[in-house]
Protein 1
Amino acid sequence: MVVIVVILAIGCEYYMKKRKEEAPINNKEIKEESLKKREFTVSETKKLYCEINNRVLDGLEVITLNSNSNEKISHIKTEHLDFLLSRIKFKILKEYDKELKIWTIAVKELNLYGDGYTEISAAQDLIDSVVEYADLYLEKTSLFSKTESTIKQVYMLKILRSINDRALLAKELGLGPEMAGGL
């Protein structure tokens, strides 16, 4: 039995050596060929991360397919995401109740609002509500990703990018610089 194993081992070595002589394997060529694809599995993305990252930095979108969930994840340049998100605008609704003498400012896309005796205090209350909602969103992201619409998730992505700067958040919401003055 030992003889058979030795013969098999020698045979495998001979076969592999012969195959290398006939068609040497070039890892660079394999990488270049595989990088012509736009979609990669998670394991391929891990193996080719640096090359994929360079393609993204060159301005191309690369997609990773999660075969377990059949979801696709896009890798895009941050500058491109900034551009796309800058085109998304919030609809701010302002209303003054003469009877109660209270301002209400609402963000339609987030279904959030703020109240106050002045427009600025209503804007600050709205920003407080947005920050609280964003904190909850971050805490329970996997829940919100399953229950919120895609468009609301995109609006939240825009919010989350400015959540640590109240003046920037006011600007992103479309409240205007006059509302950011008291923040």
Protein 2
Amino acid sequence: MLCLDLIINICEYLKDTNYYLLNKSLYKTIITVEKGKYWKDKYDNFFKDLNKEYLILNGDYNWKREYIRIMRFNYWRKIDNVNTIIFMFSMNIKEIPKEIGNLVNVEQLILSNNKIIEIPEEICNLTKLRRLDLSWNLIEKIPKDISNLVNLTHFQLNDNNIKVIPKEVCNLTELRLLIIPYNLIEEIPKEIVNIVNLKNLHLYGNRIKKVPKEICNSINLEKFLF
């Protein structure tokens, strides 16, 4: 049984923050020794009395470096898995942290008018997502795993630097609105007809010279702006 007096010795405290850091190997060791939730209650109460908190990191690496990496995302600190809507418009965000993939209850994610360059693969874990707005950024690529977002109905990526619409986007059969104008796209995949519920498709302001004939078979398409 681990003694309370050892807690401070096995955790590393960052003096400029309010956190003790605990790495994954040590976390597993504690679970093995304590064999139950008792350890968690014990630690929670101990740090509560100190008016401190502890953070379990997912890896065996430099705790301070990883903690600083997470904490530099100022706008994300207070977001937890209770949130269903994340709205961060024009906040000078340059990077979406990979931890976004843990927020599996998010249904609307609006990060427009920022300076985001990359969509992390982890965003494709948000299977409850219905609206994804990444317009007015610097994004160059849509991840292929985007097809995991099976409940997505609104997808906005206008005013970015996207060159290709991957075929995987065409597997998003619940999409009603796909907005990708003012990018660098040269071709519309013919598989776009597979998005059977698509009503609005906006692709103007790109480099597209030819529209695939298959798009005429999109039975629910009401507005196609090219």
Protein 3
Amino acid sequence: MLATLDVPFDAGAVAFALDSAVELGQRLVVANFVERAPLPLSAMLGYEDLPATPEMEQSLAEPARLAVSLGVQVTRLRVRSLHPVPALVEVVAEQDAGLLVFGPDRSRMPRLRYWRAARAIRSSVTALIWMAD
């Protein structure tokens, strides 16, 4: 599983996740965990979700396209939650992932947010973890 917290992927993380999926012959789950509170009026009008920026969409689509071209089955997920890190931990468990590649581009993510997320992931996830440190 290749995961980020609504920032583009680190190139090293994408390469590691693709190499692992190809070598092991396993499917690749490309997941983006977004911190968004559902707004009642927006939900009633059907506008509860904002589209991803073109840069973010490209960052999510590129690993999926490359994996498909290498013969790897791909699943793309976008999880919206008030608490994206616990949601990430839950999805890793649900998907029964053997490897979690936590690969947000650290230059685009606040240092404290990354540190807190990494600490929570390390303490909760039972799969092997690779982080872009």
